[in-house]
Amino acid sequence: MRRTRREQATLIAVSAPGLILMSVLFILPVSLILIEAIRTPEGDLTFHYIAEVLTDPYSWRIAWFTFLQALLSTLFALLLGFPGAYLLSHYEFKGKRFVQSIAQLPFVLPSILVVLGFVIFFGNSGVLNSLLKHLLDLKETPLKILYSFKAIILAHTFYNFPISLSIIAAFWQQLDSREESAAMTLGANHRTAFRTITLPRLIPAISAAASMIFLFCFTSFSIILVLGGGPKFTTLEVQIYQLARVQFDVSQAAAFALYSLAISSGVLILYIKSQHWMQKTMGSVGRALSPKRTGRFSKFLIMTYMLLIMLLIVAPLLSILFRSFQEPISRSGENRVSLRWYLELFGFGSASQFFKGASQAILTSISIATVVTLLSVPISLSLSTLILQLKKRLSIAAETLFMLPMAVSSVIIGLGYAIIVSRFPVTKIAYPMIIGAHLVIATPFMIRSVLPVFRKIHKIYTPAALVLGATPFQAFLHIQLPLLKMSIISGAIFVFAISIGEMNATLLLSDAKVTTIPILLYRLIGSYNFFGACALGTLLMSICLILFAATNSIQERKI
Amino acid sequence: MKRLCVILLTVLVAATPVFAGGAQEKPVEIETRTLTVYAYDSFVSDWGPGPVVAAGFTEATGIELNLVSMGDSGQVLQRTILEKNAPKADVVIGIDNNLLYKALEEDVFAPYESPALQHIDESLQFDPSNHVLPFDYGFFSIIYNTEVITNPPTSLEELTNERFEDSLIIMDPRTSSPGLGFLLWTIAEYGDEVFTYWDRLESSLLTITDGWDTGYGLFTNGEAPMVLSYTTSPAYHVEYEDTNIYQAAIFDEGHYLQIEGVSLVRGAQNEEEAKIFIDYLLSAEAQDMIPLTNWMYPTHSDVVLPASYDYAPMAPSMLSLDSALITNELDTWLEAWTKEMSN
User: Fold this and answer.
1) pLDDT digits over A473-484, tens only?
2) pLDDT tens digits for A325-374?
3) Which of A5, A192, A390, A411 could tie A394 with a disulfide, CB 3.0–4.6 Å?
4) Which chain A residues in 355-374 lie under 8 Å from chain B, judged by CB atoms?
5) Virtual torsion, Cα A411, A413, A417, A419, nearest 10 deg
6) What pairs with residue B260 in β-bridges?
7) Which of A367, A522, A529 has the CB atom closest to B17's CB atom?
8) Which helix (H) or strand (E) holds A336?
9) CATH topology classification for B32-137+258-311
10) Where in chain B do CATH 3.40.190.10 domains reside?
């Protein structure tokens, strides 16, 4: 495809904002740190640090562990998500929307609350164990789940199976079901049809979900340390943190980060390839499944699955809600039911010291997340346009680059921002900087959602519109945008969630002058107020739940 | 086209309060003198000493205080080092005895012999060169739940007793400063034998958390009856929750000491104001605010502690390690610790 000069100019103009943002708030800060891995203090080129990591058996061990836990977590998240994906794509049932909304909740919560909620429920003195002890009249803790390798896998599964659920379900729903019908007409039973027709065709979606989950588990931090029980479970991310933040050894940290980045880029490319593959499998004239009504057996399946979801997701989240309505009472140390934290949250409390900034923080967080979500739409569309216009190799490279913020250690991004802030007066424009940083971190999720659909439209509908005499802009407005609406909405949920939960970059770029919900939450916990933190966490969950439910219902109505 | 306009408008409208908020927070640059102070995040938080100290300081001197934070004290030091050639901060708060040597090595601070030092006990003046002046201190300690443990441990050694199996939550020295404090504590007490101690301690550990907040949260949720924290932690529960079920286990051999300091930045743009602020932070007036906001002991010898501090016992003796030794050996210790705990 040869482009005219004018077309080229338009392409550059359209993709410029996204490119500038990526360069200033991602490529620049990350390169500033990574370059330390191949530089001596005097500024000469050296491979000393890189070689050192490569020859140290300990680094091999943590690299292997990081890989292994991510692999196992991915496997279990897939196993758990798969039946759910089947149910969601094949049946219409009560609570379907609820499942879809609640499955996304763990993403918005700061990891500290996820860990706390998990321990309050599954812990040795947690709800589940107390209940079992009481019911079975036991003395010993019946279920010692936590503080072990399996706890890490369990928590990662909890955190990530919604990804496999949504990716596989969305794909399955659009899969042409006539092939199965044909197979069965020809005498194949359900199982054979599934094994020989359905499953192979689902592989691209499974592989996309797997690579995404793997990426998240690969850079996991708190869950590994706290729920694993200690340093025998050390990941690359923990090693990078220790080197950069405790030992002030940026060169070594950067060397580790390079290796980590190499692996995660590989996985990212696998993800991108899988998405292309999904597209091919789906074809262009797929006839979507129409959800069936439920029979008795499927009802049983749905109930069982819902119960599992309740146990895994809702119970830990409910424990946070439960704690938020409690207040420690004098001497005996018993807790009593109380609205104290919520009252203080809205300024009715007696101890005015608490929650002074809570309503402000909520407002700030929601405003930032809203702006980020809205801006991520044009940015993602422009970057997607660029990806689609580039030649094959270059296109994959660009796509990988734009998705890379998902895969880079947050410690490294943080260090990069620290350098930027120390050299330039960026904190004077704290809000635009924070919004920019959130955009960089969250936009991959929008691109992830929009690009596949965009690619399809780009190949089929747009050329048709252009042939029929529409200008490119008209084609965009009347053909592309309406077709993209659904994927924009589902991407928006993720972008909003990522932005509202982001803390590290916000703290660094604002010089602590901007207080968001996660920052306030950490400060509450840091000043001994766990109940208050749970109340704020509950509020955060409620806001997001309402938003998710609303967007899910819009999506549903439009289908 | 119409639709695009609507979208653009929505973006703008949504963005307005945010940018307006940003504009409001910019300091008004009339002739008021402004001092920039870097501190760790919990210092500047709504519940920390930052807001009250800043208000008191401005009232007393007329100088505006610009309190800035970028995370924990390690990150504060890191930023200060990055800005060494063109410092933006005048004062840095939060360099403790573990970071002291690193800060001195990087030469980011200027010495200041504050007249307020005369009110500070000499044993607390941890930097004889006066680059870092002590403004508060505390002791690491094991906090226990009296409803579960009636007979608390009285030494580090007793923590290894099998009756405390899976009972203790500590923090990882690689990611948390109390965690590092505890590792140094065991090194101060056991010297070369330290890792055989950790070997014995391991069965008592329920988990090792990444930060103090998670560990303490698990503890107050009843997951374990003992947690690593500070001797002042019980005072919080007395002051704000009116309960004394959490108490500090006092060890006769002593507790590892943490002293936090305030420093004048070398090349500070407002050196004179910076000195006034340091004097203020060390004065009885500001020191009085420390116990209930920073949950540490004030260094000023005349300050009367609040009643809740009856539950924040002083350590019978202080343990500490030489700051230069820490900086030089830290990597080795952390590596050895990780190796020991990984088996």
Assistant:
1) 787 788 788 888
2) 887 664 554 667 888 778 777 766 555 444 557 888 888 999 999 999 99
3) A390
4) 356-357, 363-364, 367-368, 370-371, 374
5) 70
6) B96, B136
7) A367
8) strand A335-337
9) D-Maltodextrin-Binding Protein; domain 2 (3.40.190)
10) 32-137+258-311, 139-255+313-342
